[in-house]
Each structure stands twice: as C-alpha cells, then as structure tokens.
Amino acid sequence: MSKKVGIGIATAAVMVVAGALGTSYYMGGKLEQEFTANLPKLNMNGVTVKVVSYERGAFSSTAKTSWTMEGGDEPVQFMADHRISHGPLPMGHAAQIHTSFQLPADADEALKTALNGRSPLEVDTKLGWGRSSSSVMTSPAVTARIKDSDVNWGGMKVEWDMPADMKAAKGTAQFAALHFKDEEGSAGMDKAQMRFDIKQPEGQKFWIGPFAMTIDKFSALKQEEEGKTSASSFEGISMDSDTKLNGDVVEMTLKSGIKSIKLEDAKADDLLLDVSLHNLDASWINNVIDMSKRKSASTDEGEAPEDLEPDLREKLMNSLTQALARKPSIDINRVSMRTEDGVSEFGASLSYIGDGQKMGNLLKDVKLSLKADVPSKAMDAFLVSRKKNALLSVFEDESEYKPEEIEETAKLQAQASVQALKDKGILLEKDGKLNTQIVYANGEIQVNGKALDDTGTAVLMGEALE
Predict the structure, then answer these.
(1) Which among 50-54, 215-219, 386-390, 453-457 has the top mean pLDDT?
(2) In whole angstroms, what is the distance from residue 101 CA to residue 138 CA?
(3) 434 within 8 A of 426, measured Cβ to Cβ
(4) Measured between alpha carbons, how far is 177 from 198 in angstroms, rounded to an integer?
C-alpha cells in the first residue's frame, strides 16, 4: 500500500511540475506577444519605443527596449531593461514585470555619480490572470551639481491600477521635492501629491473622471543687477477637476486655489478659481483630438501643417452645427482673492443660445455676462499700473519725462477712467467697493440692469480694449 501511495504521490508531483512548467511557458509566450505588440502603442507626442530584444525562459524572460524622445535640438535616447517572471503558479498572479530605465550614454557624469549605479526610474507591474495590472513607479532621491546648477530631487512614487484594456487608471502620485540653484537664482517645489480615477468611455477618444493635485509650495529667487533680488512664492496650491459624460455631452468642473502668493512686494491670499463647462458635444471633442493627433504626426513626419488646414477646418465646421445645437457654455463661477485692500471677486459666463443653423447670427446667438466687486483702492492700483505700462510702451525709454511725472500722469488717467465709468453707470460705488454687472445678449449691452447707450458703450469698449 505504501509503495502504491509513494508512486501516486510521485506521479502527482511530476504532473504538477509539468503543468506548472507548461502553464508558465505558455504564459511566457502570451506575454511576449503582448509585450512586443503593446509597447509600440506608447509611440506618441515625440516618443518612440522599440523592442530591441526579448529572451523567453520557462519561468522568466528578459527584454530590452529603446526610448527616443524628440523635441530638442537633438533626440534623446535611453534604454530600459525588463525582467519578466511568469511562473510557477504559486506566485498568486499571472506575471510580474520589473523595468529599470538607464541613463543616456552622454548623461552628465555628476548625475551618474550621484545615482551610484541606481536606476533613475523603476517600474514594478503585477499582471492578474485577467490581464488587469497594478504598478508602482519610483525614482530615488538625488542631490548633485549638474552643469553649474545644484539640483536636489527628493524622489517620486506613483501607484496605479489598470484593467486589461488599459482604458482606465486609478492611483496616486507623490513627489517629495525638486530644487534648482545657480548663480542666476533658484527655484523649487515642495511636496506635490496627485490622485486620479479616470477612464476612457467606450467609443470615445477622451478620458473622464476626477483628478486632484496639491503642491505645498513653489518658490523662485532671481538675482538682479546691483546685487538686488526678486522673489516670488506660491503656497498651498490645490486643483480639483472632474469630467463626466452624460449621454452625448461632456460636463467639466475645475476648482483651483492658492493659499498665499507673493510677487516681489505684492501679496495676496486665498486665491480661488471655480470654472465649469457644460454641454460640450462629445463627437466634436473626438474630432478635435483626432485632428490634433493627425497634425502632430504629420509634423513629426516633415509634412507642412498648413497642407492639412483646409481638410481640418472642413471637418471641424461640419461638426460645429451639432456642437452649437447642444448649447455649450462656460461659467467662471468665481475668481477671488484677498489683499490688504479687501476681497476682490469676479465672475463671468459665455453661452451659445442659438440653434447652430445660422452661422451669420453667431454674435447675436452668444450671451456674455460679467460681474465684479472690487475694493476701490484695488481698482485704482490696477488702473494706475495699466496706464503706466501703456505710457512706457509709447515712450519706449526715450521719454524726457521723469518716472515720477509718468506715475502722476498714470494716476490722473486712472482717476478720469473711473469717473467716466461711474458717470455712465457702469461702475457703482458702495461701502468703499466698486461693482458692476454687464450682460451682452441679442446684440445689446446691459449694465446693472439697464441698456447702455452709444456713449456708454464707447466708454466701456475704450477701457476694455486699451
């Protein structure tokens, strides 16, 4: 009995090993087919990927790819090594791919020394039996002096999951820091994070879903003449966006903010931007994406972009009627910031209210509205700066006027502009703030609920177009 049991166990063991070997080698073959077929799909935006070699084994394989990036004076080429494990079964997943990118041969020696043999970028990917994947991309921290610049890269980690069709991605990204410093100044970014949950709907060329990003701080310092410096910083940067497909139309929202911003001597806090887009025709967006890719590809191949323009314009115009019939609109729900003078708030919207059939009525079929609520001191400062820049552009540094005379003239012009806008009822003053509501619809301009006469229109357009 024990002898038969032993033979049975041995036979079962051989069968398991043979099965594992066969499955592993089969998986290796399938992976090789998919690897060599899918990598060229990454060719886009000036990046070309080629499989240099692929060596398949029973439980693991190795591959090498070349990556060429166009766009500069000369193309940049670097290599990537891939270690692919595809067996045996107890791994718990179909395969695992480890990719190590190598520096270009002509990379700066200081960077090579700082990396000390480490790969500048590595990706670990686990493939499920259904071909879904989970990936982790990392880049090590590096401190080096490269071409007269001190560089401090704090490292990076990106994690994401994708289904088998690679038409969705969900994950997070973390960037510790990036700082540059040379004799002309310095620039740096501290702690950036991203999260995303996006997908490409069936039959569409665009992606939808939420995307969010935060950056703790971005700063820059520039050395000026006579030992002076100019500094700027942005702290508490955030952005949240979402894109949705509702039937045949796309809806988009974007909310962005900056907790504090400093530009030389100017300072503002609590900056906010809230924008939404409605009723964007999905087919029209697909056409734009298709034509953009076609134009980019033709440019890369040396074909003159203008040779494609008639065809591109015709295709866009043919789909424009349907796009306009959706009644698209963009709403700048709020733009606001706080300065020492108080809180300034703006809002605007642009919408198409026609049926898309009569392009000659486009101006009458558009509705535009604008609202503003600004501290008087902030408005005065803005107009003085604008008038001053206009005067300087006219004189082009050849003026015999002294800077203080130009400054005084700019102040007088700004005061005259504000008074003219007040006289025509365009600006209303209350509690130390100036506010207005302007609406253009059906070929007519209304300001603060009243139709604007020809003189008022001339004053408004004169200030807007100056």
Answers:
(1) 215-219
(2) 11
(3) no
(4) 26
Tokens 């300065």 — which residue? Answer: 339
Beta bridge partners of 127: 95, 133
Give tens-digit pLDDT for 360-409: 677 788 999 999 999 999 999 889 888 888 888 877 666 677 778 888 98
Cα 78 from Cα 106, distance rounded (Å): 10
Q: How far apart are CA 251 and CA 211, in angstroms?
A: 14
Give me the DSSP letters along 257-298.
EEEEEEETTEEEEEEEEEEEEEEEEHHHHHHHHHHHHHHHHH
Give Cβ neighbours of residue 374 (< 8 Å, ≥ 6 apart): 344, 345, 346, 382, 433, 434, 435
- Considering only CA atoms, which of 134, 154, 132, 133 is closest in space to residue 142? 154
Q: How many CB atoms lie within 10 A of CB 363?
A: 9
Report whether 164 contacts 136 (CB < 8 A): no
- Write out the two tokens for 110: 């200081």
Query: Which residues, listed in sequence order, are joined to residue 189 by a DSSP beta bridge?
Result: 178, 218
Q: Which amino acid is at 148?
A: D
Asked if residue 195 lies in contact with residue 171, where contact means CB atoms within 8 angstroms, the answer is yes
What pLDDT does 237 receive?
A: 97
Q: How far is CA 450 from CA 423, 437, 453, 462, in A?
A: 14, 10, 9, 19
* Whether pLDDT at 24 is above 60: no
Neighbouring C-beta atoms of residue 258, cutoff 10 Å: 20
8-state DSSP, 358: -
pTM for this prediction:
0.83
Helix H or strand E encompassing 316: helix 309-325
- The three-state secondary structure class of 390 is helix
Q: How far is CA 92 from CA 16, 89, 127, 169, 435, in A?
A: 16, 7, 10, 22, 65
Q: Both ends of the chain: CA-CA distance in Å?
A: 103
Calculate the CA dihedral of residues 77, 41, 165, 252 and round it to 10 degrees.
90
Ordered DSSP codes for 66-134: EEEE-SSSS-EEEEEEEEEE---GGGSSSEEEEEEE---TT--HHHHHHHTT--SEEEEEEE-TTS-EE
The one-letter code for the residue type at 167 is K
DSSP state of 209: E
Decide: 24 and 58 in contact? Cβ < 8 Å.
yes
Structure tokens at 280: 């964007």
CA distances from residue 341 to 232, 268, 375, 376, 388 in whole angstroms, order as listed:
20, 10, 6, 8, 20
